[in-house]
Design brief:
The complex is a heterodimer of chains A (159) and B (167).
Chain A (H helix, E strand, L loop, with lengths): L1 E4 L7 H14 L5 E4 L11 E3 L4 H10 L2 E4 L3 H9 L4 E3 L13 H9 L5 E3 L3 H9 L13 H14 L2
Parallel strand pairs in A: 1-2, 1-4, 2-3, 4-5, 5-6
Helix pairs in contact in A: 1-5
Chain B lengths: L22 E5 L4 H7 L9 E6 L12 E4 L11 H15 L3 E4 L3 H12 L3 E5 L10 H9 L2 E4 L10 E2 L5
Parallel strand pairs in B: 1-2, 1-4, 2-3, 4-5, 5-6, 6-7
Helix pairs in contact in B: 2-3, 3-4
The chains are: A alpha/beta (159), B alpha/beta (167).
Chain lengths: 159, 167
């Protein structure tokens, strides 16, 4: 199963339509669940939801083989936590897909992280999807920076 | 420390002298903001925490956790701002937190502002998504909050310090 997710704020039909096109073209037989945000996109190839409550989302995350997502931090951190591969496709402000280009910055920052696969266009996306059996998951480690964050926060919150 | 707001009343009087000594309000928008806030949970272990987000139920929390649902608002849905403010004021009045910590976005910024009005210590942690520049809300928060932090060392400056990061 593939889980597609684009967050709940702004639709991202460009990505949804590309995945839909790939499913149709490739004859992918397994289930594809797409959380599409505030959009009226409909598809015969995918099960489509505008938004999914956290509990149900957690279920999809555990059931899927990999995730296709906009370059949102929630999706990336969640994928790393459950060690599932995530293909990220950043939104572009010039196409009205977000207020600014911070998703391009996120994609740059995470391009070398294990388990995160950055794609920017149809060709790169189709290429990754066609070879999806080779995708591997990453991990969310307790890095030095994370430990630093926790100890700093604890100190500030101490009465 | 952030700059004091130009408000002349004695802020703590608004909540009486009942502000709970170590109570923390941890609040954010949904999605990545919330996932990052939940990464801070281990740092809350010595505090009495109240959580708030827009989800009807937060699956990351246990049934014992004190959780409030707030309305969502962004620059694209600014008309909802009044009901969001009312909802947050209600939480502040009921729970009387001593500290507010938020990972954004606009509801977090509103809470920081309200927190300052009520004399509550306020902390802003800018999202790790802002890796090349501080968010608009973060820039405003850096003037309002007692502490403002970034998760990227290269963005650390006079008003916003590096504190570590969620990954």
């Amino acid at each position: 199963m593939i889980l597609v997710t684009v967050g709940t704020q702004i639709p991202f039909d460009r990505l949804i339509a590309l995945v839909d096109g790939w499913v149709s073209q490739s004859g992918y037989k397994q289930k594809v669940v797409a959380q599409i945000g505030n959009s009226d996109y409909s598809s015969d190839n995918m099960t489509v939801f505008k938004s999914v409550e956290p509990e149900q989302f957690e279920k999809y995350i555990h059931d899927c083989d990999f995730i296709i997502s906009h370059a949102g931090m929630g999706s990336i951190l969640t994928a790393l936590r459950v060690k599932k591969p995530i293909v990220i496709f950043p939104r572009k402000a010039e196409l009205g897909e977000h207020r600014n280009d911070h998703q391009l910055a996120t994609a740059r920052s995470f391009s070398s992280v294990d388990g995160v696969y950055v794609v920017h266009d149809k060709e790169q996306l189709f290429d990754v999807l066609t070879n999806s059996s080779s995708l591997g998951g990453g991990v969310l480690e307790d890095s030095v920076d994370y430990k630093l964050l926790l100890s700093n926060c604890s100190n500030i919150l101490a009465p | 420390m952030g700059v004091p707001l130009c408000i002349s009343f004695k802020p703590t009087q608004l909540l009486g002298n009942l502000m709970s000594k170590n109570k923390v309000l941890a609040l954010s928008s949904p999605g990545g903001h919330w996932v990052q806030l939940c990464r801070l949970i281990p740092a809350f272990k010595n505090s009495d925490v109240v959580y708030a987000c827009t989800y009807n139920k937060a699956s990351e929390l246990s049934d014992d956790d004190n959780y409030y649902v707030i309305g969502d608002v962004s620059r694209d849905s600014i008309q909802r701002i009044f009901s969001v403010i009312l909802g947050i004021v209600k939480i502040l009045k009921k729970e009387k937190p001593a500290i507010i910590i938020t990972t954004g976005a606009l509801p977090g910024l509103i809470t920081i502002f309200l927190g300052r009005c009520y004399g509550i210590k306020t902390i802003w942690l800018d999202s790790i998504a802002n890796s090349e520049k501080i968010s608009m809300s973060g820039k405003i928060a850096s003037y309002l909050a007692h502490h403002s932090f970034t998760q990227w060392e290269n963005l650390s400056g006079k008003r916003i310090k590096y504190i570590g990061r969620v990954i």
